[in-house]
Design brief:
Chain B: It comes from Actinomadura alba. Chain B: InterPro entries: Leu-bd, Leu_Ile_Val-bd, Peripla_BP_I. Chain B: This is Branched-chain amino acid ABC transporter substrate-binding protein. Chain B: Pfam families: Peripla_BP_6. The complex is a heterodimer. By secondary structure, chain A is mostly helical. Chain A has a domain of about 200 residues. Chain A is built from twelve helices and four strands, in the order αααααβββααααβααα. Chain A is globular. Chain A starts with a helix and ends in a 14-residue tail after the last helix. Chain B is α/β, with parallel strands linked by helices. Chain B has two domains: about 210 residues, Rossmann fold (3-Layer(aba) Sandwich); about 140 residues, 3-Layer(aba) Sandwich (Rossmann fold). Chain B is about 40% helix and about 20% strand. Chain B contains 14 helices and 14 strands. The longest helix of chain B is centred in the first third of the chain and has 18 residues. The radius of gyration of chain B is 22 Å and the shape is globular. The N and C termini of chain B lie far apart (about 50 Å). The chains are: A mainly alpha, B alpha/beta. At the A-B interface, α1, α10 and α11 of A face α9, α10 and α11 of B.
Amino acid sequence: MSQLIWNGLFVGSFYALVALGYSMVYGIIKLLNFAHGDLYMLGAFSGFAMLGAMGGLVKSQSLLALFIVLLLAMLTTGLSGVVLERVAYRPLRRAPRLALLITAVGASFALEYGTRIVAGANPKVYPVRLGGTTLHVFGARITVQQLALVGVAVALMVALHLLITRSRQGRAMRAIALDPRAALLMGVDVDKVIARTFFIGSALAGAAGVMAGGYYGKIDFLMGFIIGLKAFTAAVIGGIGNMQGTMLGGLVLGLLESFGTHWLGGEWRDVFAFGCLILFLTVRPTGLLGERVTERV
Amino acid sequence: MKSPKIILGVALAAVAATSACGQGVLGGDDEGGDDKGPIVLGMNVPKSGSSAEIGPYMENGAQLAIEEINAKGGVLGRKLQLRAEDDGCDPKMATAAANKLVAAGVKASVGGYCSGATLPTLPVFDKAKIPMVIPAANSTDLVAQKLKHVFLINGTGDQQTTAAMAWLVKSGAKKVAVMHDNTSYAKDIAVRTAAELDKPGGPDKAGIETVNPGESDYSANVTAVLKTSPDFIYWTGYYQEGGLLTRQLRQAGYKGKIMVADGAVDPKIISIAQGENADGLYATMTQMPDTIQGAQNWVAKYKQKFSADPGPYSPQSYDAVRVVAEAMTKAGSTDGAKVVTALEGINGFQIFSGPLKFTPDHRLSEGGFVILVVKDGKFALQDSLK
């Protein structure tokens, strides 16, 4: 039982980290950024390239190297997110929602197959793996590396929460979420704030990508697709646009999958998890902590 | 219907071609139309998607055979030419690719890796009366429809199951868990193996577990499998998930044996599973370049041509082309019906898995499965089960 809960929470923290970017972007410009999962993939690949470039340091100081790479990859992925917004989404901001949605799907394919051209179709294996000793907590097997990853994920989420609730930046973001036009009239530089939002959201996805690479070891150019869908689901469960809700949604989805596998077997896991999602949304369409009902796609 | 002169011509061409020095001027007269240019062989292989790295291995293997045959004068006096299409291991893409090949006028198909993607292409080729010699895809579903033009030269699921069971018994397994990824190919082997395990005597079944391909975290599946306390786990899916599962099983403290099926035999499974996690990993596999006795020359030739090592299904694709060429030569024609008859008549033609003879349902009469084991970071032959 405790093992199931831990499995769920561990996977869920990855979902949550990726889901935050989805949720932030949606909260601010009501765009479902379907390319978000591919930014996660981009993070994993840029981390892979950097680890390759660092060569010797990776061997001697692998943890330190991985940490530096994590930060650099977040930066790279964040900037890619900004570029993506500038190139693909900003020109269409006043276009119909559907056009924007299709652009997002297009951006997703462009990133996937662009990466394939650069890095090749073969999966890559991270040169550094997080190895760790196993602890037994309440009967669950927990490795130190898992704890470290969850620790990093939680730290990033706390930092994001503080940024949004405490800083001027965060206030501007919330203002735009409420009403972009009014925010503009009040002197908020809307374009800049949206670019920053993309930066933060993409950086979080990039961090998750490097962590997945370091932990699971295998990366490939389509790795962002499924986790993108899962993260989107997590965001909807929690209440898309709401940060705490999204984090909670990630953990809930992880737990649903873990228990679904346990009770019904692997082939029923997604049926179970997504069945719960449908049931849940009919009862509470705004998600766990979502407040406003938004009718736009 | 035909003037004696033409019949004589065809006969001459057939003789010329059979003796493999074929400059048969009148070759393939019965075709009408496009009998002057090269004979195009179609090949559906994955060049994108989850099995993207297999495509080039197969394409190169086929290309090698084609060049060898062309160097000896081709087939029926005509050169062979390969036309490879990407099926992405995806049923929809595969069907579109097959239609493209048919429209391009291919005379035979020598492709097919993912069974799930190959299955929907069977009626496309069959309707166009184009013989298929499928080198890699090996789900028994492929021959279940008993289509006239479909031939498999890889061992099928039930032959693989027989090999797996033989090794389970031989290595003293007691409680076996079977895992698969719900694809046509993997499920076929898994379900057959589970059915064998359910029979009285021999090893028992611990359970059968399905995972979703394409993910990274299989801890929930691992926990579910380990709950049934198996001492042997058989993974019948592909290598990416296989590598992740092996590593995650070991991390979860599983000490028993692990075996994978032929779709998971790729050097990458070892690096994904990471180092010693993969040591002692068994595999049921058809012949590979480095486990085939006396294939060193072939491997050297391949390396020289493509400056890369041959991979899984390079030899089988090479064989598929040779089998088709042999059948066309024997038939003295590229006509679908005649080639099929010639394929059915092949007896003892040497391919990598041994002398070739098709069963009435167009499969290998000998499976040719062996057991490999990972030793020092490489797959090596463990037991040839003979």
